[in-house]
C-alpha cells in the first residue's frame, strides 16, 4: 500500500494550538466551498542534542528514524535488529559510525543514548519499553503500545515509576488537522455525536502484509529464536519473521495495525476514555497463506455517556479482499452535521434542521380536504415564526494541512520537546492503552465469538 493511500484514510484553541502546533487559518476559495489551509506551528524551541537509537529496523523503524532526524539537534547513533541485512542497510544509509547489534540490551546499556524508538513486532513492545525506561531512556513506542492488555498496565506502571518520557507512535494525534477537528467538534459544529463509522479497505498483496522476503534469509542471518520470545518454539520460518503481522503469536492483526489509528484519532477529538462493549465479526477470505488472523473484520463499539460526550456507537471495518480496489473514510455523524476525516484533512457538512417540521411532500397534509389544509397552514404559521419556518441550514467547509505536511514529524517534535523542556506528551502510556485496549478487545471478541464488556476507566475486561 502506498504512503499516499494510507494517509487518505476546542473550546479553548489557545492552549491546544500551543501544544499541538495548530496555526492560523488561511481561507482559500474552491468553488463554493471554503478550504482552510492549516499552518504548522513554530519550529522546535530548543535544539539541545539528543542521541537516538532504534530497536527494530523494519518498515516503521527506517521510516521513524528518517523522520526523527529531521528534527533539529537529533542524531541517530545506534540500531538493533535480529536480521543482519537490516543492520547492513543502516550502515549504507547512515554510515559506519552508527553502532549496530542484534541484542537490544547492548543498545540500552549505552550511556550515550538518550532516547529509543521501539519498532519491533508487537509481542516485544512491552518488554523493551519497560527495560528502556528502567535504563533512563525516553521511549517512542510504535502502535499498538502492547500486544496484551495486562502488558499495558505494566508499561503504565513503569512510566509512572521511572518518570520517563514515553510516547506512543499513532502520529495523527499530533497533526494540525486533528487539532482543528477537535476544536470544531468541541465547538458543537456537528451537534450531538451519535454514530462514528470508518472503513479502511485494501486489495493488494503488500497491503495484506505479504511483505518481501530477502533471498539471504536463513538461521545464519536471522536470530529467529530470540524473535519467538516466549511463544511456541517452531522451526526457522522466514515467512513468520518478515510477515509477522499474519500471526496471532507475534502481532495484533487488523485491529492492532489499523483500527488503533482510528480509535486514537476519535479519542483525541472527543476526549473519550473508550467504549464499554465491543463486538467483532469477520472472516479469512482471500489471503489463505498460512496466516491465522482474518483479512476481513467488522467491529461495533458502544461508547457510554460521559461528561465529555453523549452515548454513541462506532463501527469500524477493514477488508483486504475488496475487489473494488479499496478505499478509506472516517465519519463522525452528529445531529447537526457530519465530520469526514482524511489523514491530514477533513470536511464538515452541516444539515441543521429548522425548528418547524414543514408540511407537504410525503405527508398526511396532502390527504386533508382543502378547508382543513387551509386551517392547518393558518395554525402552523401562528405556531412557528418566519425564522423557525426557514428550510434546513446546509453548508460545507473543508480544512487541510499544506502540501508536504508530515504529522509524524510533528509527533516527534512533541516527543523531543517533552524531553528537552518538560512539555506535555500528547500520547502517553495511559492514552496508548485506552487506544490499544479496544483494538485488542476486537481480536478477543472475534476469536471468542462473543461481545466483550470493558471498563474504560480502569481499562479492564469486565
TrEMBL record:
<dbReference type="InterPro" id="IPR036291">
    <property type="entry name" value="NAD(P)-bd_dom_sf"/>
</dbReference>
<dbReference type="Pfam" id="PF22725">
    <property type="entry name" value="GFO_IDH_MocA_C3"/>
</dbReference>
<dbReference type="InterPro" id="IPR006311">
    <property type="entry name" value="TAT_signal"/>
</dbReference>
<feature type="domain" description="Gfo/Idh/MocA-like oxidoreductase N-terminal">
    <location>
        <begin position="50"/>
        <end position="169"/>
    </location>
</feature>
<dbReference type="InterPro" id="IPR055170">
    <property type="entry name" value="GFO_IDH_MocA-like_dom"/>
</dbReference>
<dbReference type="GO" id="GO:0000166">
    <property type="term" value="F:nucleotide binding"/>
</dbReference>
<dbReference type="InterPro" id="IPR000683">
    <property type="entry name" value="Gfo/Idh/MocA-like_OxRdtase_N"/>
</dbReference>
<feature type="domain" description="GFO/IDH/MocA-like oxidoreductase">
    <location>
        <begin position="241"/>
        <end position="339"/>
    </location>
</feature>
<protein>
    <submittedName>
        <fullName>Gfo/Idh/MocA family oxidoreductase</fullName>
    </submittedName>
</protein>
<dbReference type="InterPro" id="IPR050463">
    <property type="entry name" value="Gfo/Idh/MocA_oxidrdct_glycsds"/>
</dbReference>
<dbReference type="Pfam" id="PF01408">
    <property type="entry name" value="GFO_IDH_MocA"/>
</dbReference>
Amino acid at each position: 500500500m502506498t504512503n499516499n493511500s494510507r494517509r487518505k484514510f476546542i473550546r479553548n484553541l489557545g492552549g491546544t494550538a500551543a501544544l499541538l502546533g495548530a496555526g492560523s487559518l488561511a481561507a482559500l476559495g474552491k468553488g463554493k466551498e471554503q478550504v482552510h489551509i492549516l499552518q504548522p506551528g513554530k519550529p522546535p524551541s530548543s535544539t539541545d542534542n539528543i542521541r537516538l537509537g532504534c530497536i527494530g529496523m523494519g518498515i516503521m523503524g527506517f521510516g521513524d528514524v528518517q523522520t526523527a532526524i529531521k528534527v533539529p539537534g537529533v542524531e541517530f547513533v545506534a540500531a538493533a535488529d535480529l536480521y543482519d541485512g537490516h543492520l547492513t542497510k543502516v550502515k549504507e544509509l547512515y554510515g559506519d559510525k552508527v553502532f549496530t547489534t542484534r541484542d537490544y540490551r547492548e543498545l540500552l546499556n549505552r550511556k550515550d543514548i538518550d532516547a529509543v524508538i521501539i519498532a519491533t513486532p508487537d509481542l516485544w513492545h512491552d518488554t523493551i519499553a519497560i527495560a528502556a525506561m528502567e535504563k533512563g531512556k525516553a521511549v517512542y513506542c510504535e502502535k499498538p503500545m502492547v500486544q496484551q492488555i495486562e502488558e499495558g498496565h505494566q508499561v503504565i506502571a513503569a512510566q509512572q515509576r521511572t518518570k520517563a518520557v514515553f510516547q506512543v507512535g499513532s502520529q495523527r494525534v499530533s497533526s494540525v488537522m486533528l487539532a482543528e477537528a477537535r476544536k470544531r467538534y468541541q465547538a458543537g459544529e456537528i451537534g450531538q455525536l451519535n454514530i462514528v463509522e470508518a472503513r479502511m479497505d485494501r486489495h493488494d498483496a503488500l497491503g495484506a502484509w505479504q511483505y518481501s522476503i530477502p533471498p539471504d534469509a536463513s538461521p545464519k542471518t536471522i536470530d529467529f529464536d530470540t524473535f519467538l520470545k516466549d511463544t511456541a518454539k517452531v522451526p526457522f520460518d522466514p515467512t513468520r519473521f518478515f510477515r509477522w503481522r499474519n500471526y496471532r503469536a507475534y502481532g495484533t492483526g487488523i485491529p492492532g495495525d489499523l483500527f488503533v489509528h482510528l480509535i486514537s484519532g476519535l479519542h483525541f477529538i472527543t476526549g473519550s476514555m473508550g467504549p464499554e462493549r465491543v463486538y467483532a465479526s469477520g472472516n479469512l477470505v482471500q489471503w489463505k497463506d498460512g496466516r491465522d488472523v482474518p483479512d476481513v473484520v467488522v467491529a461495533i463499539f458502544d461508547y457510554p455517556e460521559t461528561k465529555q460526550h453523549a452515548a454513541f456507537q462506532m463501527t469500524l471495518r477493514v477488508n483486504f479482499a475488496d475487489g473494488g480496489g479499496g478505499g478509506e473514510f472516517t465519519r463522525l455523524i452528529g445531529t447537526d452535521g457530519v465530520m469526514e476525516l482524511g489523514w491530514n484533512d477533513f470536511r464538515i457538512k452541516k444539515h441543521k434542521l429548522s425548528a418547524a417540521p414543514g408540511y407537504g411532500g410525503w405527508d398526511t397534509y396532502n390527504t386533508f380536504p382543502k378547508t382543513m389544509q387551509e386551517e392547518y397552514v393558518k395554525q402552523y404559521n401562528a405556531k412557528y415564526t418566519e425564522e423557525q419556518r426557514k428550510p434546513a441550514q446546509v453548508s460545507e467547509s473543508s480544512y487541510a494541512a499544506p502540501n508536504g505536511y508530515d504529522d509524524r514529524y510533528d509527533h516527534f517534535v512533541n516527543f523531543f520537546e517533552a524531553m528537552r523542556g518538560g512539555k506535555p506528551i500528547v500520547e502517553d502510556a495511559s492514552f496508548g492503552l485506552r487506544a490499544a485496549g479496544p483494538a485488542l478487545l476486537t481480536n478477543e471478541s472475534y476469536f471468542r465469538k462473543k461481545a466483550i464488556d470493558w471498563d474504560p476507566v480502569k481499562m479492564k475486561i469486565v
